[in-house]
């Protein structure tokens, strides 16, 4: 194997990020402070058309606090996908509410509107679909459904920085939206999360909950957490924010090349009016997905990823019985190919040749 390994994901950390961290170190003020405050304002400007954002120490904390700030708690149900990262359902369970797992549709792998509606009960407090792989879910349809039933819409936008539907950015549809800043996401702060909201009460609750329930020291208003972002992490995030739109363009260009040249596999669809930011470039392989995954690595030195092989309702942590046929199909057939901004033209050609060769031979 003479050619370099092409990883499935690769965070880009440059000299500017290192200098920004160093500058914070030099001040001696490391915890949540001015960097975090500036990062929140800049994140709102660049990615949220001005909607307010609140920084926390991880995406998972962002979902957890967003739900708590929206009044979700014991006795409530929140409808979530099973085909997602575990944090989606975990964050609901951590509030004491019950995650109710619904099926997905197979075009964009996001929650199926009709199946969600069939699961709404008098305990349902809200619906939390995921903008999976960077493709926006049917946000307008879900907003209408939530309104019809008098419940809330929350957005897990962990993978979808800058994605939009009909010109409206994700993270501006729901009561709150959450963006993860984990290293493999479209931009990073090391670890971190950003919660968007246009509801002043939710915003204030988020600011209280991340900081021991206090706005003024020793005047704690409620029982809260220490889920603050540090100024070191915010400094990294601020630099990344200046680059994320350019990286997204590269992801989209890489995706266009793959879609134009791959043969014999299902390439990602894009809904009318949707801006897909390709956190993942995910193909469907009805036969031999696992062989393709293994042979890309062993014969062509190309990384790929299965997101997600085990539907969350079947994880030992939830262990629920549910009939979610599309979820089971997706878990067996999806494969994500490298699409990140460090993938070169030569890499793209290698990926296309490798996939087409293996699939043609009948993987
Ligand atoms: C990454 C991710 C999260 C959690 O974010 P962390 O920053 O890792 O805590 C939540 N939901 C989805 C869909 C994710 O991909």
CATH class descriptor name of the largest domain: Alpha Beta
Share of β-strand residues: 5-15%
Q: What percent of the residues sit in helical stretches (DSSP H or I)?
A: 25-40%
CATH superfamily of the largest domain: Type I PLP-dependent aspartate aminotransferase-like (Major domain)
Strand order in the sheet with the most strands: 1-9-8-5-4-2-3
At CATH level 3, the topology of the largest domain is Aspartate Aminotransferase, domain 2
Outline type? globular
Using only C-alpha atoms, the radius of gyration works out to: 21 Å
Structural description of this entry:
Its cofactor is pyridoxal 5'-phosphate. InterPro entries: DegT/StrS_aminotransferase (IPR000653), PyrdxlP-dep_Trfase (IPR015424), PyrdxlP-dep_Trfase_major (IPR015421), PyrdxlP-dep_Trfase_small (IPR015422). Belongs to the DegT/DnrJ/EryC1 family. The modification N6-(pyridoxal phosphate)lysine is found at residue 185. The active site is at 185 (proton acceptor). With 363 residues, this protein is an alpha/beta fold. The chain has two domains: 15-241, Aspartate Aminotransferase, domain 2; 244-360, Alpha-Beta Complex (Aspartate Aminotransferase, domain 1). Helix content is 38%, strand content 13%. The protein has twelve helices and twelve strands. The chain has helices at 15-27, 34-47, 59-69, 87-94, 113-118, 139-149, 200-209, 231-241, 244-261, 289-300, 325-333, 345-360; strands at 52-56, 77-81, 98-102, 124-127, 152-156, 164-165, 168-169, 176-180, 193-197, 274-275, 281-284, 334-337. The chain has a seven-stranded mixed beta sheet, with helices on both faces. It has a three-stranded antiparallel beta sheet with strand order 7-6-10, with no helix packed on it. A two-stranded antiparallel sheet has the order 11-12. The protein is globular. 51% of the residues are buried. The model has no long low-confidence stretch (mean pLDDT 97). The site of pyridoxal-5'-phosphate has 14 residues, from helix 3 and helix 4. Pyridoxal-5'-phosphate binds next to helix 3 and helix 4.
């Amino acid at each position: 194997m003479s050619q370099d390994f092409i990883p499935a994901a690769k965070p880009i950390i440059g000299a500017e990020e290192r200098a920004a961290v160093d500058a914070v170190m030099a001040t001696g003020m490391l915890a949540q402070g001015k960097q975090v405050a500036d990062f929140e304002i800049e994140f709102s400007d660049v990615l949220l058309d001005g909607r307010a954002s609140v920084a926390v120490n991880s995406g998972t904390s962002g979902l957890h606090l967003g739900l708590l700030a929206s009044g979700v708690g014991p006795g409530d149900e929140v409808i979530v996908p099973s085909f997602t990262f575990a944090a989606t359902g975990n964050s609901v369970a951590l509030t004491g509410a019950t995650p109710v797992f619904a099926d997905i549709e197979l075009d964009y792998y996001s929650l199926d509107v009709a199946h969600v509606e069939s699961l709404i009960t008098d305990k349902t407090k809200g619906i939390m679909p995921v903008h999976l792989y960077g493709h926006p879910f049917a946000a307008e349809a879900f907003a209408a459904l939530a309104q019809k039933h008098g419940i809330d819409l929350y957005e897990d936008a962990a993978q979808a920085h800058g994605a939009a539907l009909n010109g409206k950015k994700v993270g501006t549809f729901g009561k709150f939206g959450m963006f993860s800043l984990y290293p493999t996401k479209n931009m990073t702060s090391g670890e971190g999360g950003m919660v968007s909201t246009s509801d002043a009460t939710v915003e204030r609750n988020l600011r209280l909950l991340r900081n021991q329930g206090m706005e003024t020291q020793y005047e704690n208003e409620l029982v809260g957490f220490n889920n603050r972002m540090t100024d070191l992490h915010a400094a990294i995030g601020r630099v990344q924010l200046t680059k994320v739109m350019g990286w997204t363009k590269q992801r989209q260009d890489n995706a266009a090349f793959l879609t134009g040249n791959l043969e014999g596999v299902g390439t990602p669809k894009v809904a009318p009016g949707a801006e897909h930011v390709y956190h993942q470039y995910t193909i469907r392989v009805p036969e031999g997905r696992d062989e393709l995954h293994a042979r890309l690595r062993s014969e062509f030195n190309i990384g790929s990823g299965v997101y997600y092989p085990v539907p969350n309702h079947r994880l030992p942590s939830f262990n629920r019985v549910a009939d979610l046929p599309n979820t089971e199909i997706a878990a067996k057939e999806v494969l994500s190919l490298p699409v990140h901004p460090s993938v070169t033209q030569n890499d793209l050609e290698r990926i296309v040749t490798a996939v087409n060769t293996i699939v043609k031979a009948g993987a």
